[in-house]
Amino acid sequence: MSKVEGNNHVNDIKEKMLSWGAIKELEHQGYRMVGEHSAVKICGWTRNMLNNNGGCYKLKFYGIMSHQCMQMTTSISCANRCVFCWRGYKAPVNKEWIWGVDEPTFILNKSVEAHHKLLAGFGGSHKVNIELLKQSKEVKHVALSLTGEPIIYPKINELIDLFHRQGVSTFLVTNAQYPEEMKNLHRVTQLYLSVDAPTKELLKEVDKPLFKDYWERMQKCLEILALRKERTCVRLTVLKGINDNYIKEYIKLLNIGKPDFIEIKAYMFIGQSRERLKEENMPLHEEIVEFAKRLVVYLFDYEIVTEHVPSRVVMLAKKKLKHKDGWHTWIDFGKFHTLINSGAEFRGEDYLRKTPLVGLSGKGTKDYMSERWNKKLKEKNRNIIVDEKTEELSFYTQ
Fold first, then answer.
1. Is residue 13 part of a domain?
2. How many whole angstroms separate alpha carbon 247 and alpha carbon 292?
3. Exposure string (b/e) for 175-190, b if CB count within 10 Å is 16 or more?
4. Of the residues 35, 215, 243, 256, which has the maximum number of CB atoms within 10 A of its CB?
5. In angstroms, rounded to a whole number, what is the distance separating the alpha carbons of residues 162 and 271?
């Protein structure tokens, strides 16, 4: 990804989103602030990939290469105080944008710069895969999901367009509290909606939202999701003993949103959430699988496709994505960028790619890019491709 010209900073400085003390605390946790309201942090799966220890579930499910993915947010602030969030309650929350606005070119350039600085230390590691480290210099994917609520950044559409012009795919996660912003959002590669509880009472308990009409806002976001033209996904974060016994209530919400994908993920007992929840609230992977099986009984348009055991997540997809030659859940990134930058009308089905066998469960690999991956990559630094004939991982040297 080449550098975008332009380096304007805040164009209307008001109050700061974060205090100096909050910034220092975030930096201590591995974050790097970008301007006044954005942040970057190296994902644990990026580290794992570079150290030959496997990629994240987005690699197995959708074909994203973890070592070329940048994890960031355009807003540290959020309109919820979710009990399962790893952030402390000192983090900023607000219903409206009241801060200065950094320019999109500044955010893009400085985020990539911060991302590469955070990766610089890998160059001196004896564990790192040198070829993958070289490839990591080119950011090909951005996950706008680090923390906070990225969709409320007033110039989010300009930033998304910049990423796409640079050939960077965009995965954006929103917390289902901003229907108007979601309606006006430019198309991204894949749009996520977090649905953290199936009833109004539980959503208030789990998300602790600031908006009084939080339930209506979430339902409106689900309605808008059903109308979106790109690939869509609803993420369910399961807290054992709290929101895991409301199958039919979840079904009602999912039938409103009609997402292409449903990710059922376990709450992870990490960060500041440990002060609010107990370790027994973290489901085992087997319990997530069981939850998915209970859910899919009532979801007639969906099937369970695959899972990622280390992340304790199971993915369901619409049956229409299962073609005669198998599942097509992966992304044809080249085709996506051609379509999005042409200005043509298109839908999520127009940039599908066949899911290779290693992207599915029970196909001879414990987890995509794990044991089998480690053995082969440790033999020699190699690049990664998926063999189109065998649908297996293939490796080549330059």
1. no
2. 10
3. bbbbbebbeebebbbb
4. 243
5. 33
315-323, long-range: CB < 8 A, 24+ apart: 315/57, 315/61, 315/261, 315/262, 315/263, 315/264, 316/261, 316/262, 316/263, 316/264, 316/292, 317/260, 317/261, 317/262, 318/260, 318/261, 320/349, 321/260, 321/349, 321/352, 323/354
Q: Which residues pair with 112 in a beta bridge?
A: none
CATH code where residue 134 lies? 3.20.20.70
CB distance 175 to 147 below 8 Å: no
Kindly tell me if the per-residue pLDDT of 365 is higher than 80. no
Number of domains in the chain: 1
- Per-residue model confidence as pLDDT tens digits over 197-217: 999 999 999 999 999 999 999
Cα torsion 252, 254, 257, 262 to 10°: value is 180
Give this prediction's pTM. 0.89
The H or E element containing residue 143 is strand 141-144
Phi, psi at 256, each rounded to 5°: -75, -45
Size of the chain in residues = 398
Look up residue 186 and give its two tokens. 């430019």
Strands 169-174 and 141-144 come out as: parallel
Write out the two tokens for 290. Answer: 């069981």
Strand partners, 361: none
User: Considering the domain boundaries, does residue 346 fall inside one?
Assistant: yes
Q: What is the pLDDT of residue 7?
A: 55
- Sign of the C-alpha dihedral computed for residues 357, 190, 315 and 262 taken in this order: negative
Nearest to 285 by CA among 260, 272, 267, 262: 267
* Each residue's pLDDT tens digit, 10-47: 555 567 888 787 888 888 888 899 999 999 999 989 99
* pLDDT the model gives residue 9: 57
Q: Could you tell me whether strands 169-174 and 190-194 are parallel, antiparallel, or unpaired per DSSP bridges?
A: parallel
Is the residue at 177 inside a domain?
yes
Q: How far is CA 145 from the centre of its chain?
A: 5
- pLDDT tens digits, one per residue of 150-159: 999 999 999 9
Q: How far apart are CA 67 and CA 56, in angstroms?
A: 10
Give SS3 for 303: strand
Residue type, 385: I
CA triplet 105, 111, 114: central angle to 5 degrees?
Answer: 140
In a domain, 82, yes or no: yes
